[in-house]
Design a protein that fits this description.
This protein is of the alpha+beta class. It folds into 2 domains: 14-24 and 64-270, no CATH class; 273-397 and 439-447, Immunoglobulin-like, CATH 2.60.40. Helices cover 20% and strands 27% of the residues. It is built from 11 helices and 20 strands. It has helices at 14-19, 94-108, 129-138, 149-160, 186-195, 246-256, 330-333, 335-341, 361-364, 402-405, 421-429; strands at residues 68-74, 114-120, 124-127, 165-171, 203-212, 216-218, 229-231, 236-245, 263-267, 275-279, 287-290, 305-310, 317-324, 342-346, 352-358, 375-381, 389-396, 407-408, 418-419, 437-447. The strands form 5 sheets. The chain has a 7-stranded mixed β-sheet, sandwiched between helices. Strands 11-12-20-17-14 form a 5-stranded mixed β-sheet. Strand 2 and strand 3 form a beta hairpin. Helix 2 (94-108) runs antiparallel to helix 3 (129-138) and helix 5 (186-195) runs parallel beside helix 11. The radius of gyration is 25 Å and the shape is elongated. The N and C termini lie far apart (66 Å). Mean pLDDT is 84; it is low at 3-62.
Length: 449
């Protein structure tokens, strides 16, 4: 969100921007205050009724339909390099290719009943899909004076935050404080902008990071950091921020942002519990069997109880839990992320997670139940539990490593980094309800009978 300082001031006062906002506001009295499903250790004890359904943590409330999508494209001076004017050879940037395709998919998607498109200058200006798509393709003709990030977020929360609605902000997300003394307050500025018009208990934001070639003038965030330059021999980042109620954001992500090449970070989104089961004929060791009541008559993709006959350090028990994570965002399906953040919580046993692997062509083509799962978690124990004991597989919700890798405190030299990105996401994270886990999968360990 940078622009030529030789022509315009670097920041518009927030009050002045507020006076320019589009008219209209909405009531939030009917927004559901969603709560994260939790699993207590007492909830995973064995069920003696074989006909009783297996307990799950899927949302019980009916999700509101995705009724509105608002897409806002920033067109300030710093965005010109992503959308250069069409040249004689017809060349374009990856930004133009990717964003034009995304706009088309949104416009034609049945996932939302209504779609609106905006060019984001000093305020959002409603335009047709054709105008916004044409701007991406042909280049910015008249760059905006400024688009101050906190004021933009305040506008979205004040004017457009509605049940069943998401707002997609496409920008380089450069927050340009007037002076270095404002840098420590970037987190506070973002939090205040997202919360200024009353806190929203179900607020969620999904962040998607991309890089593109860049052909235009590059403006550092801080004037003191460097001078504007003709750019670039390196790729420059840009982002989508998907902002709205948690269920609407989840629905939109699943329908329209499944590109696994994008860097992702999700804040406040709640996901249904994935399907999972203990697998008794897949890389298992030791003396154990399914302890579920009526196990011989049940679906082999829904076993939850492991009955241990013998276990020792010399002859440990190992079993594999199949996980179907296909409905989660790519961030949470990434094998490296799972290996670092999937954990076991248990009581009075020495069970521990010893490995996480992804499905292969062999497992997908198998005739066994393992063919139903995308990932596998192997658990080992060396002691028979004294009685039925709970075990929960939990995926911790941690900020992905790419955020710090893409963050810089000095963007005077063009690079594939964004000024104060971590601070921006700190402010965002402080604005949403904490979701320490992505999912919790309850199991039970018990001695064999």
């Amino acid at each position: 969100m940078r622009y030529p300082t030789s022509l315009f001031p670097r920041l518009l006062p927030a009050l002045g921007l507020a006076l320019l906002l589009l008219p209209g506001c909405y009531s939030r009295s009917d927004i559901e205050q969603g709560q994260e499903p939790t699993v207590g250790m007492t909830d995973v004890m064995p069920n003696d009724n074989p006909d009783a359904p297996v307990a799950t943590a899927e949302a019980t409330e009916t999700a509101q339909p995705l009724r509105q999508v608002n897409v806002l494209l920033e067109v300030s001076g710093s965005m010109e390099g992503f959308m250069p004017k069409t040249t004689a050879d017809g060349g374009n940037t990856r930004f133009q290719q990717q964003v034009a395709q995304f706009l088309s998919e949104v416009n034609n998607s049945p996932a939302a009943r209504q779609k609106s498109f905006f060019l984001l200058k000093e305020k959002p200006y409603a335009e047709s899909y054709a105008v916004v798509s044409g701007t991406v393709r042909a280049g910015i003709r008249q760059p905006a004076k400024s688009t101050e990030l906190p004021a933009v977020l305040d506008t979205l929360m004040t004017r457009y935050y509605q049940p069943g609605t998401v707002n997609v902000l496409i920008s380089d997300f450069i927050y340009s404080p007037k002076n270095a003394g404002a840098i420590p307050y970037i987190k506070t500025d973002i939090t205040d902008a997202l919360q200024r018009n009353a806190a929203q208990a179900d607020l969620a934001v999904s962040v998607y990071g991309f890089t593109s070639d860049f052909r235009g003038t590059y403006y550092p965030a801080l004037v003191a950091a460097g001078k504007k330059t003709n750019c670039c021999d390196t790729d420059i980042p840009y982002y989508y921020w998907v902002i709205g109620p948690a269920e609407a954001v989840r629905q939109f992500d699943a329908a329209l942002l499944t590109d696994e090449t994008a860097r992702q970070a999700h804040f406040g989104v709640v996901y249904p519990r994935p399907a999972y089961s203990v697998l008794d004929k897949f890389e298992n060791k030791g003396s154990w069997y399914y302890g579920d009541a009526g196990a011989s008559k049940r679906d082999a993709a829904a076993y939850r109880v492991v009955a241990v006959s013998e276990a020792s350090a010399q002859q440990p028990v190992e079993f594999v839990v199949g996980l179907d994570l296909q409905n989660l965002p790519a961030q949470y399906r990434d094998l490296a992320y799972l290996q670092q953040n999937l954990a076991v919580q248990t009581v009075d046993t020495d069970a521990k997670l010893v490995g996480v692997t992804a499905a292969t062509a062999q497992t997908r083509g198998s005739s066994g139940p393992q063919s139903r799962f995308t990932h596998f978690a192997k658990i080992r124990l060396t002691k028979v539990p004294p009685a039925a004991r709970p075990l929960v597989l939990k995926l911790q919700n941690q900020r992905p490593a790419w955020v710090s890798q893409w963050t810089t405190k000095n963007d005077g030299t063009p690079a594939a980094k964004t000024f104060a990105l971590s601070s921006l996401l700190d402010g965002l994270q402080a604005s949403v309800q904490a979701r320490p886990t992505v999912f919790e999968l309850p199991l039970t360990l018990q001695p064999a009978k």
